[in-house]
Design goal:
This protein has 153 residues and is mostly helical. The chain is 74% helix and 0% strand.
Length: 153
């Protein structure tokens, strides 16, 4: 019993000692890797959603899951770009101007979040007339931000 209590105390002290590092600024390379992984998730769900919508693949039961996943991922985009990695030497597809743009980027990321939420709601409603325009709005939101803040591929 004493060993269990002692072990719990040591674990508690160690977790408190490590906690401040969880709030430290990330290395630029790690921040970029995280952002790119998040955007790959967004891209994967977007491509899968449109493949389903266009009838290229037949897994209609997954349409709502992809729409919901896009809506959830879209909530994380603004936060993924908080750390300014411009001039850090980290290889990124984000233009350095993204951090200078401030409210313009925040607005475009917000447009994406809104479009993704609207798409999810349209799919859940099963209103076929609403899904197409919501999907088009999502594509427009992606394009708007990429045209402004992503290096050309």
């Amino acid at each position: 019993m004493k060993f269990a209590v002692r072990s719990a105390l040591v674990a508690g002290v160690l977790s408190i000692a490590v906690l401040p590092s969880a709030f430290a600024e990330d290395k630029a390379e790690d921040a970029v890797k995280y952002r790119e992984a998040l955007m790959e998730v967004v891209g994967g769900h977007t491509q899968s959603f449109f493949a389903l919508l266009q009838g290229k693949v037949s897994h209609p039961e997954d349409l709502a899951w992809h729409a919901d996943s896009l809506a959830e991922a879209s909530k994380r985009v603004k936060g993924a770009f908080v750390q300014n990695t411009a001039g850090s030497g980290a290889k990124t597809e984000a233009k350095d101007g993204i951090w200078a743009a401030g409210s313009e980027f925040t607005k475009l990321a917000g447009d994406f979040e809104t479009a993704a939420a609207n798409l999810s709601a349209a799919v859940k409603s099963k209103d076929q007339a609403a899904i197409g325009p919501a999907a088009k709005a999502l594509g427009g939101a992606c394009k708007g931000c990429h045209d402004e803040f992503r290096e050309k591929q």
